[in-house]
Structures are given as structure tokens and as C-alpha cells.
Design brief:
Blueprint: H1 3-16, H2 29-36, H3 51-55, H4 69-72, E1 84-92, E2 95-106, E3 109-126, E4 132-150, E5 155-172, E6 179-193, E7 200-209, E8 227-235, H5 236-240, E9 247-258, E10 266-275, E11 279-287, E12 294-303, E13 306-314, E14 326-333
Antiparallel strand pairs: 1-2, 1-14, 2-3, 3-4, 4-5, 5-6, 6-7, 7-8, 8-9, 9-10, 10-11, 11-12, 12-13, 13-14
Length: 334
């Protein structure tokens, strides 16, 4: 047995695999490992992160001037007006995520660098006699370099490069499973305002394009979790009441498709109400094959250059105990 590969696959399967969308799966552990061994790697890149994104149920690909675009659609970062530092933290189904980054501005170009850490905790390692030989800590990381360019007042382009690392470390007598695997991925995105329909924006992104990763000690390369996502955003009051600036209502919708498969279309719907551009209330719903179906709520505060967002998902993995999915995002413009 290869403990690093088996452990990583099993944890990834439990957290993100489409096959765990309900509690009715009666497969044995051996069957789960057999089915998941040929699945994608680095699936932490699909995990929910960013409080605004989560509060909108994941419907974010058409957002413009959104610092969370560094993670979801690099083109949406092109409209950021000030150099901005940001931080995201989340816990979700026994995992923890942190993102820290900075987005700078140079004329129509935005350039950002972010570090994304995804911790899956520790699991027991056992030998062939089923004896406990230690604990394996599983941690994944990505260094993300983003560029967003405002091609015009209505059209933005973006690209992100991700240096991905999967790592395992053992405390005990299983030191041979220590290892790191490196991979590379790209995001290509676009957002645009539709001139003929005032208040309507559209977006599209191809996420996690890459050659895949060979897990340490493995003989095969596992593919990256490549996804195509398209979406639309409607600023309702701007479209029907152009002079209204006290209140705001935005509706967003995304659909996502696995590039290598054509039978797992996912949908995301979100809404956001705002008061004087300061207080934001959000609600959303996701229809997903990855155990992520369910509602979401969020709240946000924009004051001068400070942004504070909170998000909470109520998907298949959520509960009201200490492991409840929770998101906090902070940003500050200089």
C-alpha cells in the first residue's frame, strides 16, 4: 500500500468527490479507493473559499472588480481600483483553508500574488498487519500569480498561473511516506458588460488547465480538476431604476461543466442586496454533483477602503456543530 496516495485519495474522496453527494453510498472502503484512484488530483482547488463567493452560492464568474476573482475568475480582478491586500479563512468538513494575497495596479493591468494553504488534518497510518504506525499529516498548497487586464471599459481579460504542491508528512514509524508532488495549472477568464442590456454582465473561465500531477511514489499522472464555468450578473435596480443609488439588488447565476466529462452540469444561483454601498446581504443555492448542493447565506460590510465578508454554507456536508462550514474574508485597499 502507498499510504500517501491512499490517504490523500480517501480524504479527497470524502471531501470533494461527486460520488459522495449523499449518505446513501454503500460502497466499501476498498471499492471507494479503487474507484477514486483514477480520479483527478489537487481537488482542493475546487473547494469553497471566499466569503462573498460562498454567500452567493458560488455564483461569481460574472463579477467585475472583485478581489475574489484571483481564485475564481482572474478577469474579475481587472477592475480593482486600488492596490489591495486580502485574506480568506475557512473551515469545511474537517479541513481548513487560508489564502493571503496582494493585488497591485499598473494602468489597465492588475497583477497579484497569493498563497493558498489547504489542510486536511491527520489520519492514522497502518501497516500490512493493520498496526498503528503513526499519523500522516496531509497539506496542499498553491502559489497563484494573477494578471487582469481591462481591454476596454466593458471588456476584461485575466489569466492565473498556479504552482501546486501536494505534501504528506509522518510522525511515527511511517517516515517512508513523507513526500511532495508538484504540479502546474492555469486559469483563463473573461468578463464583459452587455451594452444593449444595461446592468447585465457575463463571464466565463476555464479553470485548472494543466498536465496533471504524479503523486510521489506513483507510476501514473493524475489529471488536474479542469472546469469550464460561465455565468451572468444582472444589476436589477441599475437596469430598471438608473437613478437609484440608496439600494442595490444583484442577481447572479453560473453553470459549470467538467471538461473531461459531459454528464455532471452544475448550477449556482445567488442574490445580493445592498444599502448605500455599505451593508450587503447575500443568499444563494448550489446544485452540485460534488456533495455541495444546498443553500448559503452571507453578509458584507464596505467602509472606505475596508471590506469584511462572512459566509456560511448549508450544503450536504454542513452541520451546526463546531465543524460547520464558515468563511471570513478581509480586504484593504491602499
Amino acid at each position: 500500500m502507498k499510504p500517501r496516495l491512499s490517504s490523500l485519495v480517501l480524504v479527497s474522496f470524502l471531501v470533494l468527490s461527486p460520488s459522495t453527494s449523499g449518505a446513501q453510498d454503500s460502497s466499501t472502503g476498498t471499492e471507494l479507493l479503487s474507484r477514486s484512484s483514477t480520479r483527478e488530483t489537487a481537488r482542493f482547488l475546487l473547494a469553497p473559499i471566499g466569503a462573498r463567493t460562498v454567500g452567493l452560492g458560488g455564483a461569481v464568474v460574472a463579477s467585475r472588480a472583485d478581489v475574489e476573482g484571483v481564485l475564481w475568475n482572474p478577469a474579475s480582478a481587472a477592475g480593482i481600483e486600488r492596490p489591495t491586500a486580502y485574506f480568506h479563512v475557512a473551515n469545511d468538513f474537517g479541513t481548513s483553508s487560508q489564502v493571503v494575497g496582494f493585488l497591485g495596479r499598473w494602468q489597465a493591468l492588475r497583477v497579484g500574488l497569493a498563497y493558498y494553504h489547504f489542510g486536511m488534518g491527520s489520519i492514522e497510518a497502518r501497516d500490512e498487519s493493520n498496526q498503528d504506525i503513526g499519523l500522516i499529516a496531509l497539506d496542499d498548497d498553491a502559489l497563484i500569480l494573477t494578471g487582469g487586464y481591462g481591454l476596454s471599459s466593458t471588456f476584461d481579460l485575466g489569466v492565473s498561473y498556479k504552482l501546486v504542491r501536494l505534501s504528506s508528512a509522518c510522525s511515527g514509524d511511517c517516515g517512508s511516506v513523507d513526500g511532495r508532488s508538484i504540479g502546474h495549472a492555469f486559469d483563463l477568464g473573461v468578463t464583459a458588460d452587455i451594452g444593449a442590456a444595461r446592468g447585465l454582465s457575463v463571464g466565463a473561465v476555464l479553470r485548472n488547465l494543466g498536465p496533471g500531477i504524479r503523486i510521489s511514489g506513483g507510476s501514473t499522472t493524475d489529471p488536474m480538476p479542469t472546469r469550464l464555468r460561465v455565468g451572468a450578473l444582472l444589476d436589477v435596480l441599475h437596469a430598471f431604476l438608473p437613478g437609484e443609488d440608496t439600494f442595490g439588488v444583484v442577481l447572479q447565476a453560473d453553470v459549470q461543466q467538467t471538461v473531461t466529462e459531459f454528464d455532471d452540469l452544475e448550477g449556482y444561483l445567488g442574490s445580493e442586496a445592498s444599502l448605500r454601498g455599505i451593508l450587503y446581504l447575500r443568499a444563494g443555492y448550489a446544485w452540485s454533483t460534488a456533495g455541495r448542493s444546498g443553500a448559503a447565506l452571507g453578509i458584507g460590510l464596505r467602509y472606505d477602503r475596508l471590506v469584511v465578508d462572512l459566509g456560511r454554507a448549508f450544503d450536504d456536508f454542513s452541520s451546526f456543530d463546531s465543524d460547520s462550514p464558515f468563511q471570513l474574508s478581509l480586504a484593504f485597499g491602499f
